[in-house]
Amino acid sequence: MSRRVLHVVTNIASYDDPSHPTGLWLSELTHAWHVFAEHGFDQRLVSPAGGAVPLEPRSLKFPNYDKTAKAWRADPAKMALLEDTLNPDEVDAADYDAIYFTGGHAVMYDFQTSEGLQRITREVYENGDVVSSVCHGYCGLLDVTLSDGSHLIAGKRMTGFSWREEELAKVADLVPYNAEAVAKERGGLYEKARLPFVSNVVVDGRLVTGQNPGSAKATAKAVATLLT
Q: Residues with Cβ < 8 Å from 55, sequence gap 6 or more?
């Protein structure tokens, strides 16, 4: 049977300040989707509220807007997937072999507090399957607790978009919290690359995390390796 991957995407279209748009960082989805498709995996999309997914405008500009992102936007069937994502209540975690949290600053507003996503993630992990994230996607892992009450990331090596990268991206004064700091507070053994914005993937057992947008392809490859 084909392996099944559940991609998590956002429903949020702006920062707290509505004059600053945000959304899904498209290549973080398309790079992973392409890798999983090459392996013949079945793929689905879920979002905290279900329904439509906005796109981060900065992800649609050079150099972030690469051939996989362009191909997705040129494909009506693919774009339709972003208009009708699953609601967490519609998802049976037992149907999936891996969950993959995409990023974009928007996810800071709706991933962390979604009890539905927390439930799915806990069940995927406790079923012996793979939990993964890239860039800000790790915000979806920050409040996930296991059945014993411990945080999923506690005591595990992991990464995600660093505070230094927030500063360099000139959004440190816009984001609602310091995700790197929160991960450490939850007991995560946070790591980052020596240089910002370079690809960096950390694998700790069945937890796979990538640091930034440039890490999406490598993160997906690491997930695929675990699944195959």
A: 23, 24, 26, 82
